[in-house]
Amino acid sequence: MAAVIKPVYSSSVQGIGFDPERQELHVAWPSGKVSVYSGVPAALADDVSKAWSVGKAVKEQIVGNFEHRYAGEEA
Question: What distance in Å separates the CA atoms of residue 12 and residue 10, rounded to the nearest whole number?
Fold first, then answer.
């Protein structure tokens, strides 16, 4: 099951989706790129997507803490 990216209210993040089977958080950026972070627990993905500042939550809790690739790149 692929992650469905839902829009979020943020100036730095366009949308967020989560694939629970693969434990992957998908973050769509205003540039059009989509980052895929592997090994993200479902509860953390949910917290980040509902954070008051989604961009800040992604930067502080996800970036640098989980394996990263861009969508379309080999896993």
Answer: 5
